[in-house]
Design brief:
Layout lengths: L2 H23 L2 H9 L2 H19 L9 H24 L1
Helix pairs in contact: 1-4, 3-4
C-alpha cells in the first residue's frame, strides 16, 4: 500500500468518525463556534494536544482513546474549524 492509499484510508476514517460523533453530539462544534468564535476550537485543539503529550509520556489509564484516536480528533477539529471559517466567510 502506498502512502497515498494510506492517506485516503485515514481521510475516510476521519469522515466516519466525524459522521458518528456528529450523530451522537449534534452539531455542537458549530454551535460553540457561533457562540465563542475561534477561541472555542483553539481550546479543544489545545486539550487534544495536551492529551497527546500525556499519552506519549505514559500509558493512559483510560483505554478508550489511543494516540491515534487523539491525532484523528486533532485532524477532525482542524477540518471542522476550516469549515466554520469558510462558512462564516460566505455569509
Amino acid at each position: 500500500m502506498t502512502k497515498i492509499d494510506q492517506h485516503r484510508e485515514i481521510c475516510e476514517k476521519l469522515n466516519k468518525v466525524y459522521t458518528a460523533k456528529n450523530k451522537d453530539y449534534g452539531d455542537s462544534f458549530s454551535e460553540g463556534f457561533q457562540e465563542y468564535g475561534l477561541i472555542m476550537p483553539a481550546i479543544r485543539l489545545e486539550d487534544k494536544v495536551r492529551r497527546y503529550k500525556q499519552l506519549i509520556k505514559q500509558d493512559a489509564e483510560v483505554k478508550d482513546e489511543s494516540i491515534i484516536d487523539t491525532l484523528l480528533d486533532l485532524a477532525n477539529y482542524s477540518i471542522m474549524t476550516i469549515i466554520e471559517i469558510e462558512n462564516k466567510d460566505k455569509e
